[in-house]
Amino acid sequence: MKYETVIGLEVHAELKTKTKIYCGCKNEFGGEPNTHTCPICTGMPGTLPVLNKTVVDYAIKAGLAMNCSITKYGKQDRKNYFYPDLPKAYQISQFDLPLCRNGYIDILVDGETRRIGITRIHIEEDAGKLVHNDYDGTSMADYNRCGEPLIEIVSEPDLRSPEEARIFLETLKSILEYTEVSDCKMQEGSLRCDVNVSLRPEGQKEFGTRCEMKNINSFRAAVRSMEFEQKRQEEVLSGDGVINQETRRWDDVKGVSTVMRTKEDAQDYRYFPEPDLLPIIVSDEWIEEIRGTIPELPEQRKARYIDAFGLPEYDAFLLTSSKKTADYFDETVSLGAAPKTVSNWLMGDIAKLLNDKELESGDIPFTPAQLKSLIDLIEKGTISNSAAKKVLNELFNNPEEPEKIVDRLGLSQVSDEGELQKMVQEVMAQNPQSIVDYKAGKDRALGFLMGQVMKLSKGKANPQVISKMLKDALDQA
Amino acid sequence: MKISKEEVLHVANLARLKLSDTEAEALAKDMESIIGFANKLNELDTDGVVPTAHAIPMSNAFREDVVKPSYDRDAMIKNAPSADEGGYTVPKVVE
Lengths: 477, 95
What we know:
The structure holds two protein chains of two kinds.
Chain A: E1 3-14, E2 51-52, H1 53-65, E3 69-70, E4 73-74, E5 77-80, E6 90-93, E7 100-109, E8 112-125, E9 129-132, E10 138-142, E11 149-155, H2 162-178, E12 191-201, E13 211-216, H3 219-238, E14 246-251, E15 256-262, E16 272-273, E17 280-281, H4 284-291, H5 298-309, H6 313-320, H7 323-334, H8 339-356, H9 368-379, H10 385-397, H11 402-409, H12 417-430, H13 432-439, H14 444-456, H15 463-476
Parallel strand pairs in A: 13-14
Antiparallel strand pairs in A: 1-11, 1-12, 3-7, 4-17, 5-6, 5-16, 7-8, 8-11, 9-10, 12-13, 14-15
Chain B: H1 5-14, H2 21-39, E1 62-63, H3 73-77, E2 83-84, E3 87-91
Antiparallel strand pairs in B: 2-3
């Protein structure tokens, strides 16, 4: 039997506010353990939380960018559980009246637009961090992260493959970056996701039983965990087995997931309205004020690249999926470089080098002006395409003006006709047989002679120029 | 509404409370009467009444996003039963 995969995601994004959600402690990654804490974020008895207004602004901004309706009367709730990273023994979150509901984002899958529903976006506080000691049965609790503001974005189960889920995550990340509500630094854990996967026989309407994998902190790990789960469930179902609803733990090193908690011992969070915090009433004016701060989003920017620059949709999609890359592209083009050429560099060699060096897309170590100079050097014929790649490599390692790199590495092409003419004559004199072959119609002879001239010039001859010279010389010989 | 001893023990476990049998039985009776008292409200016709999310008629108490100095770490940690190198030492619980 053929099965269809159904995936829903819950994404936690750290908001980029200056302070925590309920107190004035710094919202900042790192720092010496427990240096960003106070009685409020460590849950001391008798303290009262006060909501950071910017958290509400950012959550609504994200909601508007994802086409959500904004809840006019929202509240916060307590989610109760015991774990040493949570000093209050409850997390303040939102249960039945989240700030944003019923939105969607459009993603591009195989050239087609798919609309993925956003069930809700709510605000909540993050928990602390535990560093386990492997030897003495204790852990060290660091509460710097405790009380940092998060939004949780919940998708509808509209995704149909791990690849689609990956594209959804990338698109979501780009919206969060564009709206500047989160810095989306995966390596600092500012974006984490829970993955829900189920399978159903193709054509069946009802969903199958789902399994959840929690707290996955890279897109790559998320995709791998989904692929694993898809395969595992297919094997169980094909063997007439039954999928149990459970939470599984993804081990990214071993590439497998194992049962963490079954439905029977699912946690009972006993949500109830947070009595220490007042309702959040959002007026139309407030919503419009926030709407006014939303910049050009990836979707609109993509359309602009297609219309104004004539870029293919694929290029436009890739360039705009990272705000930094798109800003870089705009700046290089504004300096006068041809849009398609810039796009080719960004999506080709530059993307490859960023990936090799494990840099985030858009974290290009040299300036748009330097890229423009590099492009100019190729167009003027000063350097060949292969020399340009060497310059690019060097730009990644020790960025300086491309002209200087060309001089330093001696990469400029020889286009001086006199010098090239000498080499052409020399090669022809040494290879009389090739001239005979060429006259007899063997095109390969030309290629061979070209190769010899290139070798003589130590790869610096301008191939267009010598090709023409050789042909002229051969025709006269 | 009847509350069983098992239900009391379940709730006690969620709150990490250890109860003796006698305590659990006594609490079952107490909870029964508390819930019975609250159940009285079910006799009211609440159609058309907006659910109350909060008892105080106030809303939107916010603070501006301005950093305030955090507390001194040593002062904070002084309250902990056990600490080491600026961290709270807690039993290792791996989920």
